[in-house]
Amino acid sequence: MDRRNFIKNTAAVAGTFSLGSMGIVAEPEKTHALTLSFDDGFKKSFYKIAEIHEYYGLKACLNVIATGHLKSFNTEPQWIPQNLLGDFNDWNKLKERGHEIMPHTWEHLNLTEIPIEKAKDNIEKCLVYFEENLSGYKAKGAVYNFAYNASTPELEKFVLSKVSAIRTGGWLVLKDSMVNDFPAGEFPLRLGCWGHGPDFCDDYVEKEINNFLAGEGGWLILNLHGLDEEGWGPVSTTYLDNLLRRLIKIDFLTVQPSGEIVKKIGKL
User: What topology is assigned to 30-253 in CATH?
Assistant: First the structure.
């Protein structure tokens, strides 16, 4: 779809599946909820992502690796070079500005490929580190974002005993290709998401959001990373700015971080 026609073609769509009745948003006319969930913790990108969201009166959804700021971090150096990652001074500053900071693993391992006890220890260390280093962090209402969106039922059960929700591979839980299926008001929550890479994903994001807005409603979570040349499957700064400019004009859509929606579902 021509991006210039995005608002024209979506603003008239009125879904019948009310998120308001599920407690996700206060306004019952909001039938669609969108979360742009940014992973890893690229310092330059995350400050810019926050700035763009602020300009449009929105909060960014930022998920960071607990040990990403340490010189010893060397997981996935091609896509997550340590020298580009911020630290908890940065994350506390962004949190103070109103943005959401959530855990994205201890050291960005695929926890399905290591022994289960090591995986659980990895999760435990991550959550403890957040409690000790992120101001105001609370497990109640928190969303744990699995690296690679890779999990197992046993790992999910373990994490969900400690936080309110997890974000993992969406293809396992969605009703169709874009909308999460979850019971209203029920905790804990298993949230699915979609991503695309390793190249720029501007066109992918555009397509998925247009398809979502043309549907009956629900909650779409798109998993993104850095801006411009940073990270796996980045979006361009220009595109993100243009996208948010258009999205805030859609009266049946709310754009919020995952934790904000989780809190409203459970009325936390």
Answer: TIM Barrel (3.20.20)
